[in-house]
Amino acid sequence: MRFILFTDRNYSYIPDFKKFSLQKKRKFVIYFYKNLKFKNNQLLSNKQIIKFQKNDVILFRTQILNDSNIFWIGILAMTAVQKGARVINDKFVLACPQSTDKYYQAILFSALNLPHQPTVTLDSFNSKKESSYPALIKRRVGALGKDSKLIYSHNDLLQFAATLTAPSEFIIQPYFKLKRDVRILIFGKKVYGAVKRKVIYNSDGSIGVEVLSLTKPTPIEQEITDRVINILQPEFVGLDLLTDKNGNCWISEINMYPSFGGFQRVSKDNIVKGLLTNV
Q1: 114 close to 274: Cβ distance less than 8 angstroms
Q2: CB atoms within 10 A of CB 78
Q3: Is residue 9 helix, strand or coil?
Q4: What is the pLDDT of residue 181?
Q5: 199-211 residues labelled b (16+ CB within 10 A) or e (exposed)
Q6: N or C: which end of the chain has fewer CB within 10 A?
Q7: What is this structure's pTM?
Q8: Number of neighbouring beta carbons within 10 Å of residue 48
């Protein structure tokens, strides 16, 4: 039996994957997207043929959701499932890139009657009303706050849109003053833990997030989390929940490839061990 990790970079926690895979009596195998090729009807990594086996357990990790990584994740996941391997988060991975698209998620949450931020694509928004601002612009498929921006007026909107070649690749959402920003890690369809976060609005309008401390989900956060687990059956995701000053709580997004460095720093837990124990 093997545990196979496909990744975009040599993360510091990769030795832990090897250590805990061996403890579970699984051979550890790692492939990097940058080394992958398709030649003569075969999947290759540095000229080595990639062959999936029944009972393989496969995890895809990526920090940057670029076209190349998404391309390989889709092909590899479908090939692995066909061979009888188990792909962690298979429903989400097989739906990539739609499952990582914030606009797609907003439509899905609406269809499933899950609370979420009002979301439209940037190319369909052109409000001049002062009440429409401030507003948040985000790349539809992106991570780590990359290409996210807080705008304060219609003029800001026009200036930002003028720098883009494809406004349809971005969404715009209303800005709210937040009481809580929480990332909930879900492993094996169960809550592993939660952390409070602080949203950082930089002077240039860009947006970042800082993990502050461990927290316990509030009753409404737990209720929404339970609904997400019951409906979507996620195996390994980061569920981001926002609560405004009036106590309204909604889903910001579900991160299919959640980073967990900040969680590990404040919890002192070995997240890799927790993941491999629970999925």
Answers
A1: no
A2: 14
A3: coil
A4: 96
A5: beeeeebebebeb
A6: N
A7: 0.90
A8: 10
